[in-house]
# Entry
Amino acid sequence: MPGCVAFVCAMPLELAALTKKLALHKTRAGPLDVHVGKLAGRPVVAIATGMGAELARQGLERLIDAVEVTRVVVVGITGALAADAPIGALVLPEVVVDAATGTEYRPDRLGAGKPSGKMWTTSELVTDPAVIASLRNDGVVSLEMETAAIAATCEGRGIPWSVFRAISDRATDAQLDDEVFGLINPDGSFRPRAIATYFVRHPGRIGAAIQMSKDAKGAAERAAAAAVEALADSA
# Structure
């Protein structure tokens, strides 16, 4: 496969938004399942790595080893720190911070959107009001689990990278807890039996869970649309 732009997602729902937007088709690249197509005449490839820094790093490295990647674009959802942050709002961070090390990475600007604020890559569920307030005071606008690892890999390989994420939830949302996160497999797919058990235990949360799912799908579609538009405009 010739030099291509790689869209990197963590979860299947994020990949699905890109696949639909660009009419990508599934194939194999070395050991990986990938989705390929073209955008503004340029070949593109999209993958879902799974959730978390380590799976993101491994997935991207395998992709880079299998195909020639000229640019990486991170696409997906993110959790907002502000309680009044609009669901679906696009986040274009000026800085991405690895919470584990404090290392800061600066995305390559892509498209007309103006980057602002910090995105915090963490493996922990952040719900403590004091921690949220401290992060906000430091300029952090959203939380996610993969971008810093992707940034480190790209910079180590000399590949420019950008990030387009949209808000799917807020750290202050009462329904977000470790039990909810336990309903998702590491690869980003859902655990049907665990979900069924969860609703038996918490029947009053069914409506909120359905809304969370809709919000995540809508945010993934917003991020995909913004990334595609920015890349098309840069062609």
